[in-house]
Write a structure and sequence with these properties.
By secondary structure, this protein is an alpha+beta fold. The protein folds into 2 domains: 117 residues, Jelly Rolls (Sandwich), CATH 2.60.120; 77 residues, Arc Repressor Mutant, subunit A. 45% of the residues lie in helices and 23% in strands. It is built from 9 helices and 11 strands. The strands form 3 sheets. A 4-stranded antiparallel β-sheet has the order 1-8-3-6. 27% of the residues are buried.
């Protein structure tokens, strides 16, 4: 019953009835990964998708020169690698646990069979993929059109919204990983945080950021203001 309750709490499976949840419980594999352990590598066969139950998982790609670009960081309740289910292709990126993590794995063939029997499950998957596409579009826009200070300002505002606190936010990633997510290097990130502090936008103490001027930070995120 505990497994079914955990599956029911995942947004991807919202609205499913007990028999449908029980069918999912029959195919799921409960997996654990230690910090730094790879879940899959780019090019591996896309045999299914995952949902984070606890911990954090980063999805990243490596350039020909070995530079890492983080695409996403997923936390509890969030699915990843869903494209493998619909497209039947190899994994397009790498996945590694950022900390000790527990994930549910749903094999492609068994899951596709359930989708054929349950249109509601297919609609949930489409909604999740649409949301993921929207996030990718915003990420591409940020990386291509905004300078690094604007990307950081936007990230801090998103964290404030997610953490429901307009004044104080806690960075959800180590600065090395945050720099990669924002398409920069840790040294540049540190300089920008310092400059934001000197200009009175924020106050930074370790992983805790106090937003001192929300309007100025918003202007920086939108491109109306430059640092």
């Amino acid at each position: 019953m505990q497994l079914i309750a955990q599956i029911a709490s995942i947004s991807l499976f919202k609205g499913l009835n007990t028999p449908e949840l029980e069918a999912l419980a029959m195919i799921v594999t409960d997996q654990s990964f230690s910090r730094g352990q790879h879940i899959f590598s780019e090019g591996d066969e896309g045999v299914g998708f995952y949902v984070v139950i606890s911990g954090k998982v980063k999805i990243y790609k490596l350039s020909a020169e070995g530079k890492e670009q983080i695409m996403h960081v997923f936390g509890p309740g969030e699915p990843f690698a869903e494209v493998a289910v619909f497209a039947g292709v190899n994994f397009p990126a790498n996945a590694v646990a950022l900390e000790a993590s527990r994930v549910f794995f749903f094999p492609r063939r068994s899951f596709v069979s359930l989708i054929k029997e349950n249109p509601a499950l297919a609609m949930n998957m489409l909604a999740e993929l649409s949301l993921r596409l929207k996030k990718f579009a915003h990420m591409i826009e940020d990386l291509s059109l905004k300078e690094v200070p604007g990307r950081l300002a936007n990230h801090l505002l998103l964290l404030a919204d997610e953490q429901d606190n307009e004044k104080t936010v806690t960075l959800d990633l180590a600065k090395t990983h945050l720099a990669s997510l924002l398409g920069t290097i840790p040294e540049t990130l540190s300089r920008i945080l310092s400059k934001m502090g000197k200009q009175g936008l924020i106050e930074s103490q370790g992983s805790t950021i106090t937003i001192l001027d929300h309007d100025a930070l918003s202007d920086l995120a939108s491109g109306e203001k430059r640092l």
